[in-house]
Amino acid sequence: MLALQVTAVAYLIGSIPFSFLVARAFGVHDVRRVGSGNVGATNVLRNAGKMAGALALLLDLGKGAAASALAGRLAPGEAALPAAAAFAAIVGHMYPVWLRFQGGKGVATGLGAFAPLAPKAALGSLLVFGLVAGATRYVSLGSVAGGLAMAALVVAFRGADPVAVAAAATALLVVFRHRSNLRRILGGTERRVGQPKEQ
Length: 199
Prior knowledge:
Blueprint: H1 2-14, H2 18-25, H3 41-48, H4 50-74, H5 80-94, H6 107-114, H7 119-136, H8 139-158, H9 162-177, H10 179-187
Helix pairs in contact: 1-4, 1-5, 2-3, 2-4, 3-4, 4-5, 4-6, 5-6, 5-9, 7-8, 8-9
């Protein structure tokens, strides 16, 4: 019963649409209708400005961390419940009930969710994201690489435990949510960092 309750709460925490709310506070009525249409910090940054993007990023990181940390407090020394809570929060961000299940791609929330559970892996995945995004100037490619790196590093540091299973499932979801970005990269139409909007 506790596991079901904690997982449900984690989903609801993850589903809080901070990027949507921040964008609206900064003058973008519906971030799903501008730019990439993604309810995430990158789209907020591009359409509502740097301050809005930074605030959305911090809040999305924070809700992921809050969900897994809360589960860890309720089940100290146990891996399964915090792992389930982390994954539930990420699913909540991607498919939020408040926005008719039209959410973001789970990268920032995922990083936040796994940071309390596997801090070395989270730091490593952030490094991979930075290197790939910096080298290619594709945030989406960096996000996919970071998600895959998270799964691999969690296994390397922790072994095949529940956190590793949750990280692997998250990586698959991140790739799935970026499928249109990957198609645009292959087609040469994906927007790079610093590239001006098409007129």
